Amino acid sequence: MNEKKIVILTATFGMGHHSVSRALKSEIERVYLDYTIEIVDIFDIIKPSYKKIAQGIYNYLTREFETLYNFFYNYKKDSRKNLIDELLYARYNRRFKEYMDREQPSIVISTFPMTSGFMSRYKLKTNCNVPLMTVITDVVDSWEWVHEGTDQYFVPSIEVKDLLRLKGIDKDSIFVTGIPVGADFKVEKSTASHTQMKQVLIMASAMGKIKFDDVLLKQLESVENTKFIIVTGTDYELAEALSDKSYKNIQILGYVSNIAELMEASDLIYTKPGGVTLFEAINKEIPILIQQTTVGQEHANIEFVKNREIGIILDRKTHFADEIENIINDDVKLFQLKSNMYELKKEFKAEAILRAVR
């Protein structure tokens, strides 16, 4: 028996970090049956009452005050040691040390920049040799992810690996794995052919300032030979508002647990430029349509989509329904995007994480 205790440290800022943590836990448990793996939110360690507050502030700033959010994001991205996080480390290092001394994990995996920072400082202060493995959850090379004492970095792309090398990180400690996603997104695509009708999956949370009103829905309804599935997620108010409406080619779903299945049956997905959703689509080889944004890490993800030609960026001034109709009827373009995703996946060495925790 090779029993090990792994702690996956994460944080409640959006859903991506927790999603990656769950994917890692599931994959490690699948291979190493005798490992104990626990996902822990850093705020549950340092200050549980801050969790909802931090999540609320993050959501509010990214939706209503992009400029202010980007000021803080860029400051942390460009600073080797930023004052904001340093104050948190100084204030709560003791609580983190108490947690580590009590739990004594064999390995720590971090899916959030600040959790890497806490673990780095713990290692330096105590001279412990517990491996710290950092999994970067957006296509970024921000300094906030880089911490002394990190043994391995698992990064989304070759571009990020090269940028980390320029920051002085040993190339042999950086592994291109893509962003870890759930097993249901990695199942081989079905060889069964779709019907002649195309399908577009729309994630309502990505709509931003585009409103689901009768005008938009009727425009979507007019797109020939295309079925639209609109997933409202946790926006229960929107789900209720749309449930009274009926259109011949539009299906309204609330919160669902089968996004992978819906992606599988779709020819195009309209979604937010979040790292996890982006790599879920890549694994499923489903071309993406995403709204232009200036929000820090999302903007970096968009640049990756552009450079790798795996999706279409929708300008804020572009007519939403017209753009979808143009893309969904361009079979050559859709094939090119899918082919680029297929080639991109060849760069991922997902097994590197499993080897690292062996």
From TrEMBL:
* Key words, A-Z: Glycosyltransferase, Transferase
Is Transmembrane helix found in the keyword set? no
Q: Which residues form the Glycosyl transferase family 28 C-terminal domain?
A: 219-351
Diacylglycerol glucosyltransferase N-terminal domain: from which residue to which, for each copy?
17-181
Can you say where in the cell this protein is located? Membrane
Specify whether Glycosyltransferase is a keyword of the entry. yes
Pfam families (alphabetical) = Glyco_tran_28_C (PF04101), MGDG_synth (PF06925)
Q: What PANTHER family does the entry give?
A: MONOGALACTOSYLDIACYLGLYCEROL SYNTHASE, MONOGALACTOSYLDIACYLGLYCEROL SYNTHASE 1, CHLOROPLASTIC
Family listed: Belongs to the glycosyltransferase 28 family.
The protein's name is: Uncharacterized protein
Species of the source: Fusibacter ferrireducens
